[in-house]
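assembly run, all chains below
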Amino acid sequence: MPDKVLGKSPHSDTSTITILTQEDNVTGLQIRKEGEWVPVKPIPNPLVVNVGDVIVIWSNGKYKSIEHRAATTEGQARLSYATFLVPHDDVEIEPFDHMDCPRSVWKYKKVRCGDYLRESLKMKMDGKAHTQVAKIET
Ligand SMILES: O=C(O)CCC(=O)C(=O)O
Ligand SMILES: [Fe+2]
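ok done. output:
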């Protein structure tokens, strides 16, 4: 029932990077660019690499995690494998000093990686709403 099922709701990954295999010839993955959903064009033997939220925090927002979703297509089976590279649960993530980032300009607070993942997973998957977990309120 592809007309009734989206596939995977919009989100950004809570990883450092994500490596995704895709089908050679079935479109499904879409990224959000300037508010529009743009399909990722299939190519032979693809590996898609997504920047995840941990890199956003480390870079104090200089690098953006991509909002994406997966859509189904009638009559076309689709399989993707996602490998999420995530620090150990106990690793504390915070903006890196060497990103020219004194504490006074931090947009993200120090969070334990496991807490960030679990707090994000508790929330409804809704684009980048879960990144609030690590944001410093202004
Ligand atoms: O199916 C895909 O290509 C994307 C899957 C995905 O975004 C995820 O598992 O986080
Ligand atoms: Fe994803």
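The chain has a mean pLDDT of 92.

The longest helix spans residues 113-122.

not gonna interpret more than that til we talk
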